[in-house]
Amino acid sequence: MARVRTGARALGAVLAGVLGLALAGCSATGGKRAEEARNAQVAGGRAAVNTPKWTFAMVSHSGDGDTFWDIVQNGAKQAAAKDNIKFVYGHDEEGSRQAQLVQSYIDQKVDGLIVTLAKPDAMKGVLAKAEKAGIPVITVNSGSEVSEKYGALSHIGQDESIAGEAVGEELNKRHKKKALCVLHEQGNVGHEQRCDGAAKTFKGKLKRLYVEGTNMPDVQSSIESQLQADPKIDSVVTLGAPFAPTAVKAKEQANSDAEIDTFDLNAQVADGLKDGSLGFAVDQQPYLQGYQAVDLLWLYKYNSDVLGGGRPVLTGPQVVTKKDAGALAEYTKRGTR
Prior knowledge:
Blueprint: H1 2-29, H2 31-42, E1 55-60, H3 67-82, E2 86-91, H4 95-107, E3 112-115, H5 120-132, E4 137-140, E5 154-157, H6 160-173, E6 178-183, H7 189-201, E7 205-210, H8 216-229, E8 235-238, H9 244-254, E9 259-263, H10 267-275, E10 281-283, H11 286-303, E11 313-314, E12 318-320, H12 322-333
Parallel strand pairs: 1-2, 1-3, 3-4, 4-5, 5-11, 6-7, 6-8, 8-9, 9-10
Antiparallel strand pairs: 10-12
């Protein structure tokens, strides 16, 4: 036993020394190096490979303050630290500006691109330019149906129609009769597919409500008005985790008995599932989307590997209920689920 304890102490000393050197390097080289060191610590203290320091850029359709994309980035950053990748990120909810961001990274000659195709028509031309420039592309989260056609190596995410169908089936299990599907970003084809999928399997009636997702007071008042006008609505389905608590507030103000359900998961949604203010969530594992996208680009650059054979690599859907929320709390609080 003494030999085991001595070995453990020696290993601890080595690890402490490695960490100390990393931290010393951070203080000597400023904020940029400090951020790289923090990412490396998350991945185990250092890059796991000695391949070139490639640069991968991700461009999403996210608006400002969308916590879902924080989780995607957390996964991407951990994979980047492991794979010796410089990871950069840009976003814009407007399709043409998203395309402009992609073009800027093409001009910078990045080594790989990760993009979303929530508004595919706006992205088609710029992805053709990426292909012409020899920059490999992975699509993530949205756009699985056009990813291969637009020249991407692979798509990482959930099939939005299948995810919607899972919602409809869960509503049936809960004996719901009338659901309100709240779309917070007009023009996002994935959102339409979610509601279409739910309508396909749901045996009750499903009504769409379009709201301006960047204006939470408007989202709340719109849902509240619908619940007040139609007491038969017994379920509200939001299409993103940040909108679920807002729907709960709308329900309370409308004095409604409707169940609030949502796509996606975060710490606040997990808490809502635990306390019963939310019924269920459909998790597409955004951390995994970011991690796999970076990892697959690295594998392609390093070994010409392509995963999926042209078909989407699915990360969801997973229906999460009250019984699951406790087990996931550790991960939602650290920003990985």
